[in-house]
From TrEMBL:
Species this protein is from: Streptosporangium carneum
Entries under InterPro entries matching the protein: PyrdxlP-dep_de-COase, PyrdxlP-dep_Trfase, PyrdxlP-dep_Trfase_major
Name of this chain's protein: Cytochrome d ubiquinol oxidase subunit I
Family statement: Belongs to the group II decarboxylase family.
Keyword line: Decarboxylase, Lyase, Pyridoxal phosphate
One term of GO molecular function: aromatic-L-amino-acid decarboxylase activity
């Protein structure tokens, strides 16, 4: 109990200090040096950690990580977790109810059922839809495409995958979709690109030509993928236009809404997902804009039976009796964590309105950055942001060098991405503590750097 008290006390101080932007946003000590500082080899070899020693270890451990609650954390699409989700992790760490099989965690499974009902309702699938929570968006995309494969080739689970299937996706699609195609046995070459506009959004008018190319190549389309929103730019595809095309042509329509589906909770941004109810499948990460800790991602299908068809398995020690409440038939994982509890407790504390306000606030902060940068000379912004992600360039130098220097300073952590084949700085506004003062300070620091070192920046 003493160690638990130490943990709560230090984590509270860690979050508070991070939110106030006091320490560096990211630690970058080399692994060998960090392992020595943490005493890892000694503790592994000898054991014997006491609450007092643990307190010292935890302080160092937290100090050397990345502070997602920090106002200067503007890097990747990982949540600054809200405290109710952290409580759920604490509960699961002690209770350890892996609940893909109902009898191993009835309360956890029931919570997940209700969270999924809520998500299905938000998407517009209602009672006819089905869902499951998985450990991350990559696994969620794989699961959704397993359902698509089962719909296209019902015997693939037992007989193997025919060599003529194709997955239609824009080149801007998340890497996990190409990885899923390879895992599913289609192979990377089966991923056939869709025509896009200069910002990487699917060109609906050119979908007929893309489908014709696929069929002339002797391929059968297994699924067509759209983004809500794209990982690099935060821009949304035209879901209604794509969905109507897929319905007219008998194509499975999959939406990767890992990051942007949470806009469904913000009234002023809900229209970005117009047409999402036409999708046959959708993924939605809670560990991004719903502020849970990693990982918790939903796989949702418009027809419940499609998700149940994704896996065809027999195991006498697990698959027996009444399977009506078991989720194991819908997921890769058997020992699946109590993921629904994270989402539920965030909802229970903040409410749907509170989570929606958070999404709207982060989207507004990104737009504010776009406005502030647009008022300054030297900044080039290729598009108006639709989410909490903004890409821009400063000067003509190497943008990656700017990012590296910002990270070395410790006050800001950005990422970078290519837009139209050109390297840009990329900001993802995730932390509630990021405000106008933070954004102005970021732009000031970039201007002070003078555009980075020379180079193509591509």
């Amino acid at each position: 109990m003493a160690a638990a008290g130490v943990t709560v006390e230090q984590l509270a101080a860690y979050v508070d200090g991070s939110q106030r932007g006091l320490p560096p946003v990211v630690g970058r000590r080399p692994p060998g040096e960090l392992a020595e500082r943490l005493g890892l080899a000694r503790w592994i070899r000898e054991g014997g950690m006491t609450p007092e020693a643990y307190a010292e270890f935890l302080a160092t451990y937290l100090d050397e990580g990345t502070r997602f609650h920090h106002p200067g954390y503007l890097g990747h699409q990982i949540a600054a977790p809200d405290f109710p989700a952290a409580l759920a992790d604490f509960v699961h760490g002690a209770a350890n109810n892996p609940m893909a099989v109902y009898e191993m965690g009835a309360a956890a499974a029931t919570v997940e059922f209700e969270v999924l009902r809520w998500m299905l309702d938000k998407v517009g699938y209602g009672e006819a839809g089905g869902g499951v929570l998985t450990h991350g968006g990559s696994l969620a995309n794989l699961t959704a495409l397993l359902a698509a494969r089962a719909a296209a080739v019902p015997d693939a689970w037992t007989d193997g995958v025919p060599g003529d299937l194709a997955l239609l996706a824009p080149e801007s699609a998340h890497y996990s979709l190409t990885r899923a195609a390879a895992i599913l046995g289609l192979g990377e070459r089966a991923v056939m690109p869709l025509d896009v506009d200069p910002l990487g959004r699917v060109d609906v008018a050119r979908l007929p030509a893309a489908l014709d190319r696929v069929r002339r190549a002797g391929r059968r389309p297994m699924a067509l993928v759209a983004a809500a929103c794209a990982t690099a730019t935060g821009l949304y595809d035209d879901l209604r236009g794509i969905g109507e095309f897929c319905a007219e042509n008998g194509l499975w329509f999959h939406v990767d809404g890992a990051h942007g589906a949470s806009a469904l909770l913000a009234e002023e941004h809900r229209g970005l997902l117009d047409g999402v109810e036409l999708a046959d499948s959708l993924i939605w990460d809670a560990h991004k804009m719903l502020r849970t800790s990693s990982l918790a991602a939903a796989v949702l299908t418009r027809r419940e039976g499609d998700l149940d068809a994704a896996f065809r398995q027999r195991a006498s020690y697990l698959f027996y009796g009444d399977q009506g409440f078991d989720l194991i038939g819908r997921t890769v994982e058997c020992s699946k964590a109590e993921l629904g509890l994270k989402v539920f407790l965030n909802l229970a504390w903040r409410g749907e309105r509170g989570l929606g306000d958070y999404v709207a606030g982060r989207y507004a902060a990104a737009r504010r950055l776009w406005e502030l940068a647009g008022e300054r000379p030297g900044f080039r912004l290729p598009y108006e942001p639709e989410s909490n992600i903004v890409c821009f360039r400063y000067g003509t130098g190497d943008q990656a060098a700017i990012r590296e220097r910002l990270t070395e300073d410790g006050a800001f952590h950005l990422s970078s991405a290519e837009v139209g084949g050109v390297r840009h700085l990329r900001v993802s506004v995730m932390a509630p503590a990021t405000d106008d003062k933070t954004l102005e300070a970021l732009l000031d620091r970039i201007c002070e750097m003078g555009g980075g070192r020379s180079g193509s920046g591509v």
